[in-house]
Structures are given as structure tokens and as C-alpha cells.
Design brief:
This protein is α+β, with helices and mostly antiparallel strands. The chain has a 4-stranded antiparallel sheet with strand order 2-3-1-4. It is globular and about 35 Å long. About 20% of the residues are buried.
Length: about 80
């Protein structure tokens, strides 16, 4: 599995109602062993998490099931992260 960095930046129309479903999504990824780490930015502009996936397409498909993306609350950008 490769690591993918997902940057989740809040959109101007950010709805705080997406936060709890996003936390549940992150907890499920962690329980499945598909999440390396996650956290928010101190300036409240968004956050990031590191997914484990076989390729960029799989990582993108998984990230696009995040409630932050589904509700349009945040813009997600996914990068293969080589560490």
C-alpha cells in the first residue's frame, strides 16, 4: 500500500454540520487500518489525513466518500506522499 496525503480545505460556504460525519468517516478508516494519521490546522482553515491505498485512483475514490467532500464543505486535494 502507498500513502496518500489528503488536504481538506474549507470552502467559503463551509457547514460545521459536516464535522461530526467527517470524524465518523475518519474513525472508520482508522478501524479498517486505512488511515495513518489525521488532524486539523490550528488556523481552522482545514486539515489533512494520510490514507493507505494501492494507487491514486483508489485513494481519490475513497477520499471522495468523505462527508466533507460529499457536502461541498471542503475542497479535497490528494497527493501520493513519498516518505
Amino acid at each position: 500500500m502507498k500513502q496518500y496525503l489528503v488536504l481538506a480545505m474549507r470552502e467559503p460556504n463551509f457547514d460545521a454540520g459536516a464535522i461530526e460525519p467527517h470524524r465518523e468517516f475518519i474513525a472508520a478508516l482508522r478501524a479498517q487500518g486505512r488511515l495513518e494519521r489525521s488532524g486539523g490546522f490550528s488556523d481552522k482553515s482545514g486539515g489533512a489525513y494520510v490514507l493507505l491505498a494501492p494507487d491514486l485512483d483508489a485513494a481519490t475514490a475513497l477520499a471522495h466518500t468523505d462527508p466533507l467532500h460529499l457536502t461541498g464543505a471542503s475542497r479535497l486535494t490528494i497527493y501520493e506522499w513519498q516518505v
